[in-house]
């Protein structure tokens, strides 16, 4: 799970650029804390705007962070010009998303020409403590450069 | 999948109240379109604030809608005073979330004293067309009334 | 979910042949009960050899039936010469696998050039009753004819 | 993920006994290689009887091994007299199950009074090499001693 070799020497810049093109990440207050080949950590501050009925962060928002961490982790390893799409993910919710700050940490488990499998974990940070609150396993699909350029057309995951 | 009998005669009012206590739903612009015992439809307008890099709605936001539809569908069938938590869900993304409006339709597949299994589908609505864009299967857990009242304490899904 | 058009006019014969090449299906006593484009029903008799600690059929065996139903349902819709691989699946277990006979019914939810998403349900049959015992959602991947012929070499799902 | 404290001092003997009551494990040739609190490794030799159309082990059989590893890992941590049931699992298949021998290694990620979440990985062993072929994340449910004794009656996962 270590020592992935990016195919795109410019992986860092394009991964950050792709992340920043996602307005949802800005709206949710999620940013990149660490980015290595096949590994990405995102962070998000608590915001009452994204809570569920008990005042904790909504599971869908936690999932957005986990999914995005997986997507960018997979993106670091695909060829220049290719795009990435999420095929599927599963989230297990282990504890309430209660904290001042949240971290979403993803790792590529198996890179592939077409499909990449990632795992991610979400943590709630409060005081000095860090509590595991959710896990994700997901599949992402690389779009060949030509397909990736036809945005809004051929983007279905199949 | 039809003819569920709610245990709580007041299920409609408490389901709506629980939904409305979720600030995330308001922030995301998601509202209830239909609510029957074991079945819930939510709707959401397109908003550029919740898009990914291609201008489509982010998968995490689609998942938030699907998860909430499942949660409220399960909630309609639990006893008065009980609470509901998501244990896990899996989302398959079938097509880009491109549309003017989105629908999230959930059905209880198997109600239970402790665990309830739901399925949900997300549709993009554009022009007169309705396109299936994602599916979810998820597990929800009922919290006994006593546990449900200790908010912020015993809410872990285990 | 109806009216799928097979690309391979010979889909029926090749689907049955692929199924019959799976020794696991024979060992588990699973056979095809119905096969239409994008829809497959399998059946299995109860066998004490495949039980768990309570005398019910093991969840892994139920999953083998569900996965195979999905795989053959996807196979009916792919081009001549192509192969099929399972990428991932999730199983929810709803009730004990107690019965004289079991049915596994799969439907293609979204066919695709590369990926096909299927759903399946497992039922226990006992007396005249039919009880839903498990659900599956899964992703399958078509292998291009050339890849499919290099059996034992390029079969990784990525 | 280390240092789990079993509630049942006799966890080792009862975990092994539960495993051995599963005839499916014997039929599939799966046995326990290592058992610690919250961690279980199972092994299985290749058998042509459980293969799919390319001669590799069927995904359902790999899943049976992964699920059982999770079940026993969860079982090591539950109170004396309690039983365990699988609620759900998701399997990602990463590479063909080609090898002389297979290992299924599970770890408890989050133990709980009612629900326990586990992760497991399957490896193919061939020559000296060990290849990751599948991952699982799953949820298991503890049955209270009274329920666990009513075998064949109250065993539904809900």
Describe the sheet with the most strands of chain A.
Answer: 6 strands, antiparallel
Which parts of chain A are unreliable, with pLDDT below 50 for 5 consecutive residues or more? Answer: 151-158
What topology, given as strand order, has the largest sheet of chain A?
1-2-4-5-6-3
Report helical residue fraction of chain A.
10-25%
| String of helices and strands of chain A | HHEEHEEEEH
**What does the radius of gyration of chain A come to?**
15 Å
From the spread of the alpha carbons, the general shape of chain A counts as elongated
Class by alpha and beta content of chain A = alpha+beta
Counted beta strands of chain A: 6
Mean pLDDT of chain A: 92
Number of helices of chain A: 4
Q: Approximately what portion of the residues of chain A adopt beta-strand conformation?
A: 35-45%
In words, what does this structure look like?
The structure is a homotetramer of 158-residue chains. Chain A is α+β, with helices and mostly antiparallel strands. Helices cover 24% and strands 39% of the residues of chain A. Chain A has four helices and six strands. A six-stranded antiparallel β-sheet of chain A has the order 1-2-4-5-6-3. In chain A, strand 5 and strand 6 form a beta hairpin. In chain A, helix 1 runs antiparallel to helix 3 (59-75). The longest helix of chain A has 17 residues, at 59-75. Chain A is elongated and about 45 Å long. The two termini of chain A are 27 Å apart. Mean pLDDT of chain A is 92; it is low at 151-158. Chains in contact: A-B, A-C, A-D, B-C, B-D, C-D. Chains A and B meet through helix 2, helix 3 and strand 3 of A and helix 2, helix 3 and strand 3 of B.
């Amino acid at each position: 799970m270590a020592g992935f070799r990016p195919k795109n020497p410019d992986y860092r810049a394009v991964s950050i650029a792709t992340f920043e093109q996602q307005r949802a990440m800005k709206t949710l207050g999620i940013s990149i804390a660490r980015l290595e080949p096949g590994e990405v950590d995102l962070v998000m501050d608590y915001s009452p705007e994204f809570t569920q009925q008990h005042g904790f962060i909504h599971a869908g928002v936690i999932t957005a962070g986990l999914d995005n961490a997986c997507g960018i982790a997979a993106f670091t390893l695909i060829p220049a010009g290719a795009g990435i799409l999420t095929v599927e993910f599963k989230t297990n919710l282990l504890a309430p998303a209660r904290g001042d700050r949240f971290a979403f940490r993803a790792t590529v488990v198996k890179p592939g020409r077409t499909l990449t499998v990632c795992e991610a974990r979400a943590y709630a940070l409060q005081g000095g403590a860090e509590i595991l609150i959710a896990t994700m396993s997901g599949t992402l699909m690389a779009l060949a450069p030509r397909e990736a350029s036809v945005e809004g057309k051929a983007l279905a995951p199949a």
